[in-house]
Amino acid sequence: MKFPKFVLFLFVFLIMTSCGGESPSEVPENESENQQSFYTVMADEHLQTRHKEAIFKALNAWAMETHNTFVYRLTFVDMSKEPANLDTPYTIKIYVKDPGPGYLGWTAWSTDNHASYTLVEPSIDAELFRRIMLHELGHSFALDFGGDPHYKGPYESVMHPSIGDDSLQLSCPELQAFCNAYNCQVDCANTTKGSATNEDVYWRETQF
Predict the structure, then answer these.
(1) Does some domain include residue 55?
(2) At what angle do helices 49-65 and 126-140 cross, to 10 degrees?
(3) Assigned domain for 161 exists
C-alpha cells in the first residue's frame, strides 16, 4: 500500500521528535550560542530534596537574570567518587561538606579553566542554602569583587563576604560583572546600601 508523501514526512517527523532528548529540569530550553557560558554542574545525589531545589533556584536565578547567557546542565551524582579539583573546564562541583570552623561555604575556582568546587555546610536550611549558592556561583564565574567598595561595604549584593538579611537576590554589581565577562546586557539600577545584621553569614574563598 502506498502512502502520500506528506503522510510519510509527518510519520518520520513524529518519530524524530519523540526519540531521545534531555530532561527539561536539567537542560534549559534556550541554549546560549556563547559556549563560554555553558557549564556542567555536578551536585551530590545524596542531597536532601530541599537542598536540591535550592541549587535549582540559584542556578535558574543566574540563568534568568543574565537572559540565559548562563546555560547549565545539572546532574546529581555520587560526589564521593568525584575528585575536588579544577581540572575540567567549565565545570562546577558542589559538595555538601563542612567547609571548616566558623564557615558555611567555601569555594575554590580557576579563572583560566572556568572551573570551581564548593563546600557547603549540610545542616543549614533551604533558604540560606539558596543564598549561599547564589554567592558561590558568582565565584564560579570568577567574580570576587576584591577591590569593589560595593563588595566590601554593608550592601545588598550577594557577593558581599558578610551577608545579612538584606542580601536575598542577585543585584546589579554581580550581574554587570558577569555580563562584562560573557558579553551580555542587564537592565537594572544601582542597588542601595543596606545594613548588615547580627545574622551575617561568612564565606571563605580561595582563588587559583
Answers:
(1) yes
(2) 50
(3) no
How many structural domains comprise the chain? 1
Reduced to 3 states, what is the DSSP secondary structure of residue 35?
A: helix
Tell me whether residue 90 is in a domain: yes
Instruction: Compute CA 82 distance to the chain's CA centroid, rounded to the nearest angstrom.
Output: 19
CB 173 within 8 A of CB 159: yes
Structural domain includes residue 12 = no
In the block, residue with C-alpha cell 537592565: 187
Rounded Cα–Cα distance for residues 200 and 103 (Å): 11
Beta pairing partners, 202: 162
CA 26 from centre of chain = 13
Here the cell at position 169 is 537576590
User: In angstroms, rounded to a whole number, what is the distance separating the alpha carbons of residues 177 and 52?
Assistant: 27
Q: Which residues contact 1 (CB under 8 A, 6 or more apart)?
A: none
* 13 φ/ψ angles, rounded to the nearest 5 degrees: -60, -45
Task: List pLDDT tens digits, range 95-133.
Answer: 999 998 878 899 999 989 999 999 999 899 999 999 999
